[in-house]
Amino acid sequence: MSTPDLFDIAQKEAEAQGAFVSSVLCCGSTACLTSGGQAARDAIDEVVASNGLERDVRVVSTGCMGLCSRGPLVKVRRRGEDEVLYADVDGDAAREIAERHVVGGEAVEHGQLSLDHPFFARQVRVVLEHLGEHDPNRIEDYILRGGYKALERAVLEMTPEAVVDEVLKSGLRGRGGGGYPAGNKWSLLAKAPGDDKSVIANGDEGDPGAYMDRTVMEDDPHRVLEGLALCAYATGAKQGFIYVRAEYPVAVRRLEQAIRQAKRNKVLGKSIFGTAFAFDVEIRIGAGAFVCGEETALMASIMGGRGTPVLRPPYPTERGLWGNPSLIQNVETLANVPTILNRGAEWFASIGTERSRGTKVFALAGKLENTGLIEVPMGITLREIVEDIGGGVAGGRPFKAAQTGGPSGGCIPAKHLDTSMDYESLQALGSIMGSGGLIVMDDEVKMPEVARFFMQFCMDESCGKCLPCRAGTHELHELLKKVCAGEGTLPDLDRLETLCEVVRDNSLCGLGQTAPNPVLSTLHYFREEYEALVAGAAVPQASAQPGVNAQDGSA
After folding, report:
1. How confident is the prediction for the chain on average, in pLDDT?
2. CATH 1.20.1440.230 describes domain 448-534
C-alpha cells in the first residue's frame, strides 16, 4: 500500500495557490454567516466572475477570524502588497471592495481594520493558528500549513512512550474545565492492559455563550483528527470517537468530510504511513444534554444508553467504553497536541505560568466593545483581556463583573480585575477556568438575577440521578426566584449558602458539584445586592473602576 507524501501534496497546493494574483478570504464561520457573510461572499464571486478573473482571483470561505462582533470579515491579499482586513462587510460593501480593491487595486478606506489592533496583537495563537487562513473543507490546505507532519514524525520516528513523554513535558492540562494533566491521563491508558482501547474527543460544548470547540471542529477539523490520532498512537488505542452535540450540524458535516479525506489520503485507517499503526474514527451525535459533557455520562451516550454519570473509580482508563480502557479529552486539548509535537514541549511550556502552561481559547462575550474568539497565554490578567483585547466596557459604562467557566463558574468583581487567568488563581476566587466562556457585565446587571439564570440552567440540565442535584438545584432556584422578586428574607440568604454547600458536597458529578458556584461567588462579592432585595431597596449601582472605561481612558 502506498504511503502519503505530505511534501508532494503541500508542494502541489502551494503551486496551485501561488498561481493566483489575489486571494480574498471571507470568514465562513457561524457567527459571520448569521450576520450576512454568505451575501458578502456571493457579491465578491459575482464581481470576480463578471470581470473574468476566476483564474487570477482565489475566493475562499475560511474559518473564524475572531472578531465576531465586527463580522462579516473579509481579508484581501494581492501579490506584492500588504493584506487588508475589512470589517462589517455587507453585500454592498463586499461589492465595492471587490470592484475597487480586488479588481482595481485600490484599497477601500471605510471598514478597514488594522491587523495591529490590540484584539489581534495581544493574542498568541496555537489552537487557532490556521483559523481565518485556510479552507477548512480541503485537506490539501491543512497539509500545506504543516498538517499531519506531527503524526508522520510520531509514527515513523518516535515510540509511543516518547510521544507520551513529550505531552507530559509540555505541561498541557485538560482544556475542558478540570485541568487534569493530559500526559498523566495518556500514561494511564498506555499502561492499561488490553487490546481494545478507545480515545474520545469531547465536543459536547454546552456552556451558554461558549463556542470554542464548535469553531475548532468546524474550521480546523483535520487538527482535531490529527490530535486524536496522535493520542491513539501514544496510548495503543485502535478506535476513536468524536462526540458532537446535534446543535452543531456544520461541525458534524465538516468532520465527516475530513474523516473521508484523511482515509483517502491514508493518514487514517489501516497501515498509517505504511506502518502497523491502524486507527479509525467515528462520530457520535449527542442530543444536547449538558450533563453529557461529564465523561461517564458521555460514554453512556456513545454506547446507546441514557447520558447519566456513574461513580468513579473505576476511571475510564481502567473501565470505559464497553468495559474496555478508554480516554476522553476535550477538543481544544487535542488540538494543542500537533503543535506540541511540531514545535517541542519546551516551546509550549515556555508559554503561560508555572502550573498553567500554554494558551487558552476564550469565547469573549458580554458588554464589551470587541467580542469574539480569542486565544491568549495563560497568566494574562483579566484586565488585559477586558481593556486591551475587549476594548473596554461598551458605551463607557463601569465594569462590574466577569463570569468565567459557564454555569459551573463564578463571578469575578472589579477589585480582582488584575487576577491572573490561570487554573489556580480563578479557583482561589471561587470561579473556574471551565471550557473557556468569559462573559463581561457592566453596572446595569443585577448579580442575583445572574445567579438565578445559571441556577435555572443547571436545574433544567440535571439528569436527575442523584437527589442533591435533582432536588437541590430546584430548591436553590426557588429561593433565588423568591429573593429576586423582593419576597426574600435575611434568613433566606443563610439558607442559600447552606443549601449550596449541601449540593456542592454531596452531588454525584461535576454538574451538581459546581452548580452552586455562581450563587456562592455572587453572595460573597455582591452580598449588598441580595440584602437590598430582601430589604426592598433598589440594587446599588457599581462605581466606575479605574482603567476600564472604554471612552475616558482613565488609568
Report:
1. 94
2. yes
